[in-house]
Amino acid sequence: MTVNLNTLWTRSALAFVVALMLALQAAPAAAGGVVFTSWGTAIRGYDPVAYFTEGKPVEGKSEFTHKWNGATWRFASAQNRDRFAAEPAKFAPQYGGYCAWAVSQGYTASTVPEAWKIVDGKLYLNYSKGVQAQWEAGGIPKLIRQGDANWPKLKADLAG
């Protein structure tokens, strides 16, 4: 059996380049942040831009997606997708889309699209409408300060 060293080296180099490209492609997602997902889709497939533009939760469509922070985000329109892609931090929910009340209390919980509020130009989601009422009754500015203080550790734990 004859081994062609050039072919062997070329295949090894190609495998290395492919592995390196995959590693570099995954790096920004790991470094960028933590996002609550359901089956890999951020905020249960709802359009984060619509909360700001339409004042209500709007389901995103599978044909309008954008990958950011390791998750697939869905949008109701190409325009909303493009707005998000240009400024994701402006539209993405705080605390990676985890429940604002839970984060203020030092833990994380999932969210539902219907329990939301924009405060000082930032989107916050909650576990349920009932939990949202607790969050509102507890003094939103104080709870946001608590959530902001708790989030770095919770985020690090989730990134694990």
Characterization of the model:
By secondary structure, the protein is α+β, with helices and mostly antiparallel strands. The chain folds into 2 domains: 34-91, no CATH class; 93-160, no CATH class. It is 51% helix and 19% strand. The protein is built from 7 helices and 6 strands; from the N terminus they run H-E-E-H-E-E-H-H-H-E-E-H-H. The protein has helices at 5-32, 48-53, 78-86, 88-91, 100-105, 129-137, 140-159; strands at residues 37-38, 41-42, 61-68, 71-75, 112-119, 122-126. The strands form 3 sheets. The chain has a two-stranded antiparallel sheet. Strands 3-4 form a two-stranded antiparallel ribbon. Strands 5-6 form a two-stranded antiparallel ribbon.
Q: How are the strands ordered across the major sheet?
A: 1-2
**Helicity, as a percent range:** 40-55%
Structural class: alpha+beta
What is the total tally of β strands? 6
Shape: globular
Low-confidence stretches: 12-32
Q: Beta-strand percentage?
A: 15-25%
- Tally of structural domains: 2
Number of helical stretches of at least 4 residues = 7
What's the Cα radius of gyration? 20 Å
The ordered string of helix (H) and strand (E) elements is HEEHEEHHHEEHH
Distance between the termini: 48 Å
Mean pLDDT: 85
